[in-house]
């Protein structure tokens, strides 16, 4: 896999401190993250390219990152199913609502 | 697992069978539809009418047809309609029929596992086939009525039984059911039960080409020996959205009803009925309906996911249809006919020309008279009159220039709009990626029974989930208990038609209401009679101290007495919705006025047939802060009523819903305009006597109007255009549904002035072509939803050519209706004009 350049990535940090480094374009699927990274005014997140989510646990954040990538894939035409484990659903929904995604 | 005991049934057997066995013997799965008609597992208990026969939620097991009386519940609960047994000794004339049917079914359909087999006695009104047994797949339950000889094709099966064809409300049906229940004692031929087809998630289904919904109740009722005058009554009481149904001749013509209780007769009836069960065609939009049509004979696909109370409508239709057939039992038919005639006028939409009463005439006459009236209105200085003049001049100029006939309004005003998009490559990918939230919601709804706790879930999500479950008919006591856990602050359930009295009692008795601020139990008629309230919600005065919003829409068993106790239990009510509560009368309003006169802010009384407007007027005047009054559908509302009401209470009025109050004329609009300066929302649907001057008055008086709902009114294009010119900037939601004369003038005005418009409904405005609507869409940048059902001049040029990135266009012919539509989130619930938090 080709190395991603630093400018193209963003780091999402979960409550437990896990860091997920993903494509910026993928992260922008979330309206909240998009606003954080692109709005004028200097958000610390924009400057460092890192966003912390103290309320979102690792498993959920991981699932969210998977969703980002799935979403890009879907928009490009490849429409598949996005599987969600039932036990995650409730928390995932609330996190998704927060992230506006 | 529900099991059946199979054995042959004969009347004698039935007569002897007195052992009520609560469970059914398991039968071999190989024969899913084996009929064991004779077993009335719940004979005695049935009589009581309780749906005790509701079997515990079972997994999808092979349907046990034997349980005629029992409807199996699918995993997601739902209510089983239990066919009450008629007296066991009555025998089961239908048993044989059922048997035949079962055999037939066996041969033909691949029955889906969870197909409860409705027993013949669906007499029970609790056709609560409302339960959503459907889990994505239409449960074809039910009995198929087919006589063996008919050799009907297998399609007929699909009847989803319990699913109330997406009808949420059981209220009407229940009333009828009650009636049926009364007659249950009598001997009557068994009906095969009702078939209901609900197409849930129909898209996936796709199996049967035609899924039909047959409303057995209606049939059954029809089959009753005695005509039900009362039935007509109940229909009257429970009016609902208009729908039409089509039935095959057999359906309607249950002509052979006749004899009671003899096997032979029953079979005859059965055989006679053969054929394809009627199909139910439900129109989604009430606006689209103009009068009723005769039922057609061919089956067609039923599409209903969303329900609304139609059962009553259907019943009525069915009755009417049945009536139109000549049958042997003439007297009964006559009674039906009379009932139908009595009710027909209420449901029909008469064209203005037909309307003989006061004033307004046909279109042509209206045009001339508006000229005269408008002179008067235009005499008043104001933006409306100016606008009218300008528009008229413009039209006249165009006409002179083009020398075309004035009647050809469509061309009288030029519109310049060029589609900018690429027509070919219309990016439908605007139907987008499903959001994660939505995916999760759906997952939750699917697995709702597995949720163990909703703690920490904010109210917003609870409501959305509840709504999703109600819509997919999966709502059940499990979820209700989850909602009621702890000390909830809001409980909203849009569809409680599945809720029985016991369930309601059980759930509410443990409910801690000390923090409850919002309680919405719509369509809960079945489960909430007066006496239950006394022991639960209204157990003691002040038991719901902070309740400010209460919605008991469709609680048809709630009467004045029950309401009195409720009101004493909830002293801080601000918003009360009693729509379609047929027993609520003017006395209730007095009660409300006495105890809540200073605090009540919103009162919804749509379709409460027992309320006489003038009788309740004195009580209404006691409300000092009433902001919302909704009296749609109450026909006794007259000009005098409105004039008196707004004279006293108009200063606070922010929303008035007067749809269907057909007696109103321009003078009431004049009164409203004079007395309600703060009016923000007005619904004038179906008021056919209004003319353009009404709009003039409105424009001159109510300057804060944000929501205007017109439907089937007779306003002219110029008048609407002038109104929009005058106040278009404040409009957020405009509905011009079926306002036939809307044309280019309006389009121009809207495009020019309605910058804040978020929702626009132009359905059935057939004078509009692509250019007009395209102009609107491109100019109204706040527009989020545009409805264009029935606009047959619009084509893909509009869809692909407009350049508004946000708008959702709904209703284009040939496009799947309402898929991937994200509608504007309707305000969650009333009390939306004033903040509620302050007083707590």
Automatic annotation (TrEMBL), chain A:
Superkingdom classification of source: Eukaryota
GO biological process terms on file: jasmonic acid mediated signaling pathway; ubiquitin-dependent protein catabolic process
Cellular component GO terms held in the UniProt record: nucleus
Organism: Linum tenue
CDD domains in the cross-refs: BTB_POZ_EloC
SUPFAM superfamilies reported in the protein's UniProt record: POZ domain
Domain SKP1 component POZ span(s) in chain numbering: 9-69
Protein name: Elongin-C
InterPro entries (UniProt xref): ELC1, SKP1-like, SKP1/BTB/POZ_sf, Skp1_comp_POZ
Metabolic or biological pathway: Protein modification; protein ubiquitination
Cellular location(s): Nucleus
From TrEMBL, chain B:
Domain annotation F-box/LRR-repeat protein 15-like leucin rich repeat: ranges: 672-798
Top-level taxon in the UniProt lineage: Eukaryota
Start and end residues of each stretch annotated as Disordered: 1-94, 107-210, 281-335, 352-382
Low complexity compositional bias, start-end: 20-37, 56-66
Composition bias, Polar residues: 7-19, 293-303
GO biological process: SCF-dependent proteasomal ubiquitin-dependent protein catabolic process
Pfam family, one: DUF7885
Stored InterPro entries: FBXL15_LRR, Leu-rich_rpt_Cys-con_subtyp, LRR_dom_sf
GO cellular component annotations of the record: SCF ubiquitin ligase complex
Biased composition regions of type Basic and acidic residues, renumbered to the chain: 283-292, 306-335
UniProt name for this protein: F-box/LRR-repeat protein 15-like leucin rich repeat domain-containing protein
Organism expressing this protein natively: Linum tenue
């Amino acid at each position: 896999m080709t190395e991603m350049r630093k400018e193209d990535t963003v780091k999402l940090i979960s409550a437990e401190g896990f860091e997920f480094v993903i494509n910026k374009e993928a992260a922008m699927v979330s309206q909240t993250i998009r606003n954080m990274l692109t709005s004028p005014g200097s958000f610390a997140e924009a400057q460092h390219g890192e966003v912390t989510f103290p309320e979102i646990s690792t498993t959920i954040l991981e699932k969210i990152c998977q969703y980002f990538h799935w979403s890009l894939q879907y928009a490009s035409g490849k429409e598949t199913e996005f599987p969600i484990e039932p036990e995650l659903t409730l928390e995932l929904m609330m996190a998704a609502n927060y992230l506006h995604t | 697992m529900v099991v059946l005991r199979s054995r042959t049934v004969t009347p004698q057997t039935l007569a002897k069978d007195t052992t009520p066995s609560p469970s059914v013997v398991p039968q071999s799965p190989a024969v899913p539809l084996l009929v064991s008609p004779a077993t009335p597992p719940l004979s005695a208990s049935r009589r009581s009418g309780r749906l005790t026969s509701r079997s515990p939620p079972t997994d999808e097991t092979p349907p046990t047809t034997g349980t005629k009386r029992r409807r199996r519940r699918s995993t997601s609960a739902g209510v089983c309609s239990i066919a009450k047994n008629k007296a066991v000794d009555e025998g089961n004339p239908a048993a044989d029929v059922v048997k035949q049917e079962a055999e037939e079914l066996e041969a033909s359909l691949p029955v889906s596992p969870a197909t409860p087999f409705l027993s013949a006695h669906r007499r029970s009104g609790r056709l609560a086939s409302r339960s959503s047994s459907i889990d994505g797949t239409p449960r074809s339950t039910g009995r198929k009525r087919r006589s063996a000889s008919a050799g009907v094709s297998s399609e007929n099966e699909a009847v989803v039984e319990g699913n109330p064809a997406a009808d949420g409300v059981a209220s009407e049906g229940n009333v009828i059911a009650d009636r049926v229940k009364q007659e249950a004692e009598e001997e009557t031929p068994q009906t095969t039960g009702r078939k209901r087809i609900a197409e849930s998630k129909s898209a996936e289904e796709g199996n049967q080409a035609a899924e039909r919904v047959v409303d057995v109740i209606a049939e059954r009722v029809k089959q009753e020996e005695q005509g039900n005058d009362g039935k007509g009554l109940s229909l009257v009481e429970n009016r609902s959205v208009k729908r039409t149904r089509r039935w095959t001749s057999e359906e309607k013509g249950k002509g052979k009803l006749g004899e009671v209780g003899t096997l032979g007769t029953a079979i005859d009836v059965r055989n006679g009925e053969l054929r394809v069960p009627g199909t139910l065609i439900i129109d989604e939009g009430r606006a689209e309906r103009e009068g009723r049509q005769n039922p057609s004979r061919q089956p067609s696909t039923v599409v209903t996911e969303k329900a609304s109370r139609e059962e009553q409508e259907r019943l009525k239709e069915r009755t009417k249809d049945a009536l139109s057939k000549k049958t042997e039992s003439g007297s009964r038919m006559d009674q039906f006919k009379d009932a139908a005639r009595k009710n027909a006028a209420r449901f029909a939409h008469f064209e203005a020309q037909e309307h003989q009463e006061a004033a307004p005439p046909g279109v042509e006459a209206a045009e001339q008279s508006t000229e005269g009236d408008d002179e008067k209105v235009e005499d008043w200085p104001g933006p409306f009159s100016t606008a009218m003049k300008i528009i008229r001049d413009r039209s006249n100029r165009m006409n002179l220039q083009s020398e075309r006939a004035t009647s050809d309004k469509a061309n009288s005003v030029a519109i310049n709009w060029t589609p900018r998009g690429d027509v070919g490559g219309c990016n439908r990918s605007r139907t987008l990626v499903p959001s994660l939230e939505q995916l999760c919601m759906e997952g939750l709804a699917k697995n709702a029974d597995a949720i163990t706790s909703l703690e920490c879930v904010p109210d917003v999500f609870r409501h959305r989930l509840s709504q999703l479950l109600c819509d997919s008919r999966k709502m059940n006591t499990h979820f209700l208990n989850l909602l009621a856990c702890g000390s909830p602050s809001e409980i909203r359930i849009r569809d409680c038609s599945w809720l029985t009295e016991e369930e309601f009692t059980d759930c509410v008795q443990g409910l801690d209401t000390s923090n409850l601020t919002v309680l919405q139990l719509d369509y809960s008629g079945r489960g909430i009679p007066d006496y239950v309230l006394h022991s639960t919600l209204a157990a003691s005065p002040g038991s719901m101290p902070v309740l400010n919003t209460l919605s008991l829409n469709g609680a048809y068993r709630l009467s004045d007495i029950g309401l009195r106790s409720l009101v004493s239990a909830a002293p801080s009510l601000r918003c009360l919705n009693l729509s379609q509560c047929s027993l609520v009368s003017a006395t209730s309003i007095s009660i409300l006025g006495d105890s809540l006169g200073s605090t009540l802010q919103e009162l919804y009384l749509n379709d409460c047939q027992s309320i006489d407007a003038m009788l309740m007027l004195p009580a209404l005047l006691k409300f000092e802060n009433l902001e919302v009054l909704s009296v749609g559908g109450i026909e006794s509302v007259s000009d005098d009523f409105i004039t008196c009401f707004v004279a006293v209470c108009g200063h606070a009025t922010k929303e008035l819903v007067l749809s269907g109050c057909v007696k109103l004329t321009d003078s009431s609009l004049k009164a409203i305009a004079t007395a309600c300066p703060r009016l923000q929302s007005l619904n004038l649907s179906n008021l056919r006597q209004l003319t353009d001057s009404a709009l003039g008055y409105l424009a001159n008086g109510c300057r804060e109007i944000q929501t205007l709902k017109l439907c089937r009114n007779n306003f002219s294009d110029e008048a609407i255009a002038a109104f929009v010119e005058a106040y278009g900037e404040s409009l957020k939601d405009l509905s011009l549904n079926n306002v036939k004369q809307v044309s280019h003038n309006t389009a121009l005005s809207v495009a020019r002035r309605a910058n804040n418009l978020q929702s626009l409904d132009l359905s059935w405005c057939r004078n509009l072509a692509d250019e007009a609507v395209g102009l609107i869409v491109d100019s109204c940048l706040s527009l989020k939803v545009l409805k264009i059902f029935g606009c047959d001049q619009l084509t893909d040029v509009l869809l692909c050519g407009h350049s508004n990135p946000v708008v959702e266009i709904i209703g284009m012919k040939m496009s799947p209706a309402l898929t991937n539509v994200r509608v504007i989130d309707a305000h969650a619930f009333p009390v939306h004009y004033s903040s509620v938090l302050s007083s707590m």
